[in-house]
């Protein structure tokens, strides 16, 4: 077994690999860029090596620096994680040539299966079901349009070396095919250093099911059941679960057999994933193979009890798989939510900056450890409170994983865990995750890859988050307010006859976005627990929330709950099950007077092009005095490996440029002004 390994990655996956290595008694070496000097994976590793500037093309994507770090530290093997160089054939080959073990498949397998064009051709030869498409390199947008016309719209334009939703577009007509080809090629080049793309038929209303495989150097290949990955936004997975609530045992076995057959064809050694698109009649077609560890591997670990990272290390060290296909268990149900630094209420644009508060829910499961009886909660992360979410890498803050006895139990555990996940300083997609989990069609398992596009076609709004009892949030605000009033009443040295007197009757003023606040009468009484009457409903609340804290847990009417309560000036913000309110509690007369206060509307910024997200201004396509028409390209912002093109919403004339190419922009920072 290895004595020391280097992890050629960062963030959550680097921390994940370190946990297993420590369990196995293996020393670890981290690598880091300028942006990651204070990163969590650097702190957790036994050694750390600086490898360059913040952009990944100058650090994490430079094979020479990774190999040099291995030699300098005496690392015997390198684990690539996912992304970056994990599916780079040349990197795997060079590592092997330098006498270092690559903890992953052989470079020949990566060449055959990691390249989507080559893998599809191989699948056809192996008589694996495949989707109609054009598998050769496409040289121009014009050629892409012609090919798309031949296949028939809609088509999927995909980067050959792609992954993680990068370099991928669906085109429904010639215009989208032409533009999508260029965008995919640029994203592929920036993210993977490979601008090849291919086109295939887009299967409407598909399920995205993937099969986890493991192979060793002794010819053994097994599959570890399936993962349901159909809940996607812009072709990037949002929620994953294992097993799938859709496929039958017969389909599972057939897909698993094909996945094993495909892996055996290339003598696959390590963990890998064969992805299929599955029709409503359970017909399935090979999509691609990811020759690496998947982001969503924890759900497979949870239902099987098998540490996939450990298996990768042992296989790389030459050990045979310690189990046969028949010995692979399947227990309970697991769900993973990707917690990303993005603002769901601003079209999911990236949100970078400092994590002012970061408190994940209480963990009862741990990576690289056995799954406890009855399941639990696991958090895989690479961040910490006070750390930075940089603009240079992907938006993931953490992976939240739960394991339950069945699907309903897992969903309930996940909803409660999301309630207890405190993130401040950057926006996160937690409200969106909460809305998805509460959706009746998700609960019923009735969804496909178009679920988000269908149900949130016009974006995500606060009112899209359902709550079975919205008055409960008002009751929590009332209970928190009463705690503050009780503290004020207990302050010593108050002027006689002028001390704080607490009544029972109040008005909860619920903030509206345009000043149209809602007034709700409430009655609050304290006798051990706090009883809050909202309308005709009464809530008996006993909770552990403390001043200055955010997470509150306790019981309401005898039922346990977890919520977030935070005082912001005179307002009390409450979050539960993805729904958020801001409320003030006051006497009825004060509430009446508040109605008379004028609402100060925000400044008119209609003449400005504002940055919708923090990021790097990579291009300004116009100049002062230039006339533009609606839809015309104005600027391009890049953040977290995603390119965001800003276009004119109406005809106009540019009067002033207010930002320069190469400048780092903040949210709502003016880029240019119109006349």
Description:
With 675 residues, the protein is an alpha+beta fold. It has six domains: 4-103, 3-Layer(aba) Sandwich (Rossmann fold); 105-130 and 208-331, D-amino Acid Aminotransferase, Chain A, domain 1, CATH 3.30.470.20; 132-202, ATP-grasp fold, A domain (Dna Ligase, domain 1, 2-Layer Sandwich); 339-451, ATP-grasp fold, B domain (D-amino Acid Aminotransferase, Chain A, domain 1); 471-492 and 499-595, Glycoprotein, Type 4 Pilin (2-Layer Sandwich); 608-674, Beta Barrel (OB fold (Dihydrolipoamide Acetyltransferase, E2P)). Helix content is 26%, strand content 33%. The chain has 17 helices and 39 strands. An eight-stranded antiparallel beta sheet has the order 14-13-10-11-12-15-22-20. The radius of gyration is 27 Å and the shape is globular. The relative contact order is 0.08. The model has no long low-confidence stretch (mean pLDDT 93).
